[in-house]
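We were asked to recover a plausible sequence for a given structure. The inputs and outputs are reproduced exactly as logged, with field labels preserved.

PROBLEM: sequence recovery
POSITIONS: 96
GIVEN STRUCTURE:
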């Protein structure tokens, strides 16, 4: 393991984080666009978590923060795949 200490101010640190996040979002968008279309349009919480590569707890947080839209069917929550991709693309525009 290689540890380096550097002096960096808060603005530079934020810029580094934003750059890292931007790269990860771009990679995710590229991966999603290369996937074969699925016939299943509505995803469960677990399927949505797998879709984004995050935990179900993160999906719950995103719902509470209004970052992703959801649909209630009975007592179950579902997410529309096409809307998730659109929301991901829109979030990329706000990060850039």
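RECOVERED SEQUENCE:
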């Amino acid at each position: 393991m290689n540890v380096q200490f550097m002096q960096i101010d808060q603005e530079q640190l934020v810029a580094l984080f934003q750059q890292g996040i931007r790269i990860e979002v771009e990679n995710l968008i590229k991966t999603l666009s290369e996937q074969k279309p699925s016939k299943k349009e509505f995803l469960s919480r677990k399927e949505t978590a797998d879709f984004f590569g995050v935990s179900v707890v993160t999906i719950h947080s995103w719902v509470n923060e209004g970052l992703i839209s959801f649909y209630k069917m009975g007592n179950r929550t579902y997410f529309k795949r096409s809307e998730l991709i659109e929301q991901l693309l829109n979030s990329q525009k706000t990060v850039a």
